[in-house]
Amino acid sequence: MAICASLRYPERAPAPVRMYVNEVDDRPAFRFGRTIVSVAVGDLLGQKAEVIVVAANRRGVLGPLATPGLTGLRSLGGSEIEREAMSLAPLELGIAVMTGAPGLEERGIRAVVHAVIHPALGERARIEDVRRAVPAALTVATKSRLRSVAMPLLGVESLSAKADVDAMVAAVVDELVGSLRRAIPRIDRLTIVCRFAEHADAVEVALAKARERVWTRVP
């Protein structure tokens, strides 16, 4: 099974439309059409999602597996998942492909979407490739007819400067919200999983601004 797809905000965030779906840390969620977008810190595999998104390179190699919740992925079936993705290589930067999720079914995960953002293993992702990969990943997930998705904050793994992180966060949220506006997604719930609390805070601020500026219409 393999599916492939390619495809500025003000300083202070407005108050978000709150719908608490994360009972652990009580973080807010944001509704964009039928899709509820929330942010979590920690385990990508523990979000009760049917689809997970992982960063990949042009060879289809999973990475980085240091992403929270993915450190044990190989022992759960990651090698087989990786082999399926590698069988589709070479992959174009900015696309997304879907593979099965052997070893992850017990966690309710039925598919893995590989967002191709790294030219090679260990190479830094470019913001333009992340911009293309986000809508591509959502398109692939929508075609699968699965309703819940968990994705890491793509592109920030090798970034340390706050300005670089903020730029990547803005790009991810911009493309995410744009995709939800342009298409009619079948995704009911999408969780952006961050490694650090400060990254999660930045994503929430960007989502709140996007909902007010882009989604909400003022007469």
Summarize the structure.
The chain is α/β, with parallel strands linked by helices and 219 residues long.
* Separation, N- and C-terminal Cα atoms: 46 Å
Instruction: Report helical residue fraction.
Output: 25-40%
> In CATH terms, what is the fold-level topology?
Leucine Aminopeptidase, subunit E, domain 1
Number of strands: 8
CATH architecture grouping: 3-Layer(aba) Sandwich
Largest sheet at a glance? 8 strands, mixed
Q: Superfamily at the CATH H level?
A: Leucine Aminopeptidase, subunit E, domain 1
What oligomeric assembly is this protein in?
single chain
Strand order of the biggest β-sheet:
1-5-6-4-7-8-3-2
H-E order: EEEEHEEHEHEH
Number of self-contained structural domains: 1
Describe the fold and architecture.
By secondary structure, this protein is of the alpha/beta class. It has helices at residues 73-86, 127-143, 162-182, 197-215, and strands spanning 3-5, 29-32, 35-41, 51-57, 96-99, 111-118, 148-152, 189-194. It has an 8-stranded mixed beta sheet. The longest helix is centred in the C-terminal third of the chain and has 21 residues, at 162-182. The N and C termini lie far apart (46 Å). Residues 7-24 have low confidence and may be disordered.
List the helices and strands and how they pair.
Blueprint lengths: L2 E3 L23 E4 L2 E7 L9 E7 L15 H14 L9 E4 L11 E8 L8 H17 L4 E5 L9 H21 L6 E6 L2 H19 L4
Helix pairs in contact: 2-3, 3-4
What distinguishing features does this structure have?
alpha/beta, 219 residues, 20% strand, single chain, 8 strands
